[in-house]
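Researcher: For the annotation table, I need structure tokens for Protein PRD1. Please keep the output clean. Sequence:
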Amino acid sequence: MGEEDNLMQSEYAPTMPLVNLFADAIKGPLLSTDLQVQIGTLNLIFYFLSLSVSTQLCQVFVEEGVADYVFEILRLSENIDPLIISSLRVLDLLAISEEFFRQRLVSGLPVLLSVLQFIAGIPLHPVQPHALRLVKKCISDCPGAISISQLEDLSQVLMEILRRHTSGELGMLPDTFILVCLTFVEVTKTPSSCQLQKLSFMLHEASRNAILSSLLAFKSTSELLLHSLYLMKGAYSYVHIDGLEMETQDAELASGILEICETHLLPWLRSIMNEGEEEYVVLDVLETFHFILIQGHEIYSRKFAKVLASSSWFNLSFGFLGLYPSEKMKSIIYMLFSTIIDGVLGQDFGQTIRDSYIYLPSDPLDLIFLLGQNTTFDVTLFPAQSAVILILYTSSLYDERVAEDSQVLASLEQYILLNNINFTEGIVGSTILTQLFHLYCFVRGALAVFGIMSYSSEAEKFMFQLVTENDWDLLSMGVHPTALKWMFEQDRLITALACQILNFCRYYKIPGLQLSNHTDKIHIFHIQSIADLVLSGHNCATSLLISLLKHTQQESQDVIFVIDVIQAILDIFSEASNELCLHGVEDALFTLYDLNYEKKIFSSSLALLFNILQSVRSETLSHGGSWLLLIVKMLECLIPKFSDEGFTKESCMIIGIFSLILNHSTHHVLIDASKAILFNSSLISAVYTIVQSACAKGPALVSYNEETATGEPLIFVLLLYFFSLKSLSALLHGNLDWEDFLLSPDGNQPFSVICIHCHDLCKLIHFGPSSIKLVASQCLLELLTRISSYHKEKMHDELRCSMRHLQSIIAVVEGLVFYEDNTVAINCGLCLSTVLGWGKVMKTVEKNRIKIPKWSKLIVEELALSLAMSGLTSTSFTIQHKPATHIAIALLQLDYTPSWMKSVFSTACISGIINKLSPRNMSAEIVELFRELYARDYMKKEHIESLQSIFQACRKHIYNERARENDCSEENIDRVIIVSPDEEGDNMCKMVLVSSMLSTNKFCSGGLHTKQNRLLEEIETIVQLLKDTDH
């Protein structure tokens, strides 16, 4: 305004009667139908009121109804911008009359909301602040005046304003931004806000966009950030209105606020460390963090505390204390420390800092210095030093260093030596002493990594003595892996740690007493911690567990607890079994068996031994130890059960253990223990009895699956027999006549080893259910393979077996070549091809050739037809036809190949098969079949050329597939099944043994890379054969 206007404003004071007359006079022009007259009149009112902004003057205008007229003009304005601008300017001035204007404002609120919705979409609209100010005033003065629908519409408008501003679609005046934040907070305070279903979502979006916008504009103005933080605090407070239980949408809002802090505000705080921003801005952000920590739901407070603690918070905070060394900054930093520690360690852990923060310095080096002082002469030092230990301990859990490790160690040692009287007299509590010990172990372990061994032996001796003499629960509090590793490397702590480990075992399975360390960066001693120690070796963790297993005799339940922990370790790291065996776990287990503990302990120890044996590397098993004694003890337990109690779950587990022992013996370990099993006459007799009993059932055997009283012992006996065949081959190589297994038994001649003859296996294969067929067929295949190898090594040309006996074997296995279980079918196909192969190199006593079974022609014809049939381009047929392929190969390898083979594999048939082959359905068996067809001169030149092209494509396909997988083979993903002593233990044991058995069959087992390797080897063989023939 000019000088004349200023003079008028200061000197001119119109009398109230004149004001009343003026207010009455302008009503007519306000009702004019001429738009320019209305706008001019409104501008006149605005100019008049602006000259002397007086509450009394505005009151007169409101009482004369001018406000009502202006609201009516807005209602009828039809969104004419000049009219809206003039009207809102007048209403903004009239609003200073407070009480007198309030009623009119409530009546005009619907009009204001409608106008706000219109002008909110116009960038930099001049009266956006006026409209928002009026709406905010109405909501704050009369919170019940706005309806639920109006509140929802307003929230949507406010959210959209911030969203569009953040995206760059909508320019905005700073006053508008501030008023949007203030108005949104007022919305959350209204009684109806809790009924808005989408308000939580809108508050989250608004808070996020407000923070993003204010951070982008921070270089030009910091005021926007302060109001954004105010909005975010208001949004977080809304979650907890009336202390109601958190609903889904509120939980999403709380998580969203934490995400904003973690993703946007924390990185921004780190970025301004070196930019020297105003202290009040940093303080406001820190106070917002503190507000979220103390006001929020406990779950989210703890979550946010862990987020802050794991983001180098201690170093960041001390950095701010260095930049802004004010009392206010010091206060909020230490309050945040205490609240964060409450969140990560437990409620009230941070009280020590809250009680003594006024005595704590701002410089971390001064903190370290403070720790090394004697508390005798200053009573304030004791709580301050406890707070320092707490801060250093908590920061160490997150790998933070507030000072050099050597400096911290020197101060800790000085603190220990100067104040040890406080420890022994109980002045310092066990919690602080435990934190002190963990901190000491952490610093010593961290320095040891770099080979720094300088320390005070006196301080170390005192700390070890303190730990040994006091019953502290060292492992219930967070401990860093570095501290834990160093702790378990100290021989002088073994006694104390044994008590700690036993205590841990006792409470391991109690819900709520053990915390997982997989999701949080804080390291609580959990089963994973001890598993890591056992696996790493070079510490006493394994020997402690074995010692507890061996010597914990006063309380039998403790033995169960220790076994449960070892089982859990094996479940995490099956390789831990190697460490257990290297430390003599078999001696501890023998001690348990020798003490004749109760059945539960016996069952649990059997399950533990089984799990160790299934995962241990054979080379780590000792030749001495108590393995032989263990086996003898278990034989003593097993044999009576066959006749007295029947076959129990413990019997299954013992036979499973015997099977694994025999399997390991193939690597020339546990030889004496294996021989004790193989040559035990009682066990041999029991196996014979079980097999003969099953065979006697004939066709009825099909009803006896593994869950029946007959089926369960039978399948375990067959598994034991399979592994005994593997073991006999390794231990008695060249000293065993394998033909004895082929011949019919002589009832008068006792067996010297565990033996099931071929004809008995054939009966089980023929009559048994699918599970029996699977194991029996694998046993028969293993036995026939051993007989073939024996004759090749001895160069025998005669087979001491009747033709009738061989034909009976052929009759059984050929009938199962197309059995529904593909593994059984492959095994039978391989058995048949093995027996047929004997006709090539051996003669029978009867001097007759082995007769080709009639079924063979049908099998080969079916194979040829299926391979040449159109539409079979998937990989499934390569599996389904493996059994028949093996038979066809065996027939082609005979000296007396059947004449009908030439007609089956005609030129047209071979062409059809080749045309249907692709890199995706090629298998090693198919390649081997073509190799034999080529050797028999069944193939033409064009066949060979086509095959060479397919082989090249196969190689390329395999190499490309491996490149995509980055040579990550599925065989490396080896998850061990941990067997438990519960009701399902015998089934799990059987699964492990069957899996181990099948892994020895290269035709049925192996992952993708194993199959690819076999295919590449066969391709290389036939390609080399083709090259040699050409030359």
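Researcher: And a one-line annotation?
Model: The mean pLDDT is 83.
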